[in-house]
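User: I'm putting together notes for a lab meeting next week and I want to include a structural view of one of the chains we've been expressing. I don't have a solved structure, so I'd like a prediction I can at least talk through. The sequence is below, exactly as it appears in our construct file.
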Amino acid sequence: MATKTITLDPSESREVAFTFTPSVAKVHVVSVDGLSGSFQALGPVGVAQIYTFRPLTSSWRVGDTVYIWGSAWVFNKGDGAGEYTEEWYIDDVLVGTNEGYLAPEAYDNNEKIWHNTELRLAPGEHRMHVVLKWNGHEDRYPTTGYSTFEVPL
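Assistant: Thanks for the context. Below is the predicted structure for the 153-residue chain, given as structure tokens.
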């Protein structure tokens, strides 16, 4: 702990500042001749390194209903935690979002299923990708590419 000795004459005041880097993130109490105060030491902010792979996709028909499925993994390889939002796109049109929290060195898997009555996709090939937003920032972390799937006739 740092120490400074200051001598003041009666009725004299002086601002005193010093730097202290605590080893523990908690509330620390400072006491000087019966006067006390406190400060909150925060832990390291850390940096998240989030990424995702190309989503897995599939589609199938049950009776008259066509289902479209997507699955995406989100990884945080950094030492900072935070919240993420996945934006799911089919043919570059936003079709859904998912939100979550990732601690350092954590991962998450999210799946979505849509009825084609919602999406109104024509039969044939379509493309899906996922974009990540971290801690509400507009910074976007795109997938490594698009996955394709067929909507059956």
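A couple of points you could mention at the meeting. Helices lie at 116-119. The first helix runs from residue 116 to 119.

User: Perfect, that's what I needed.
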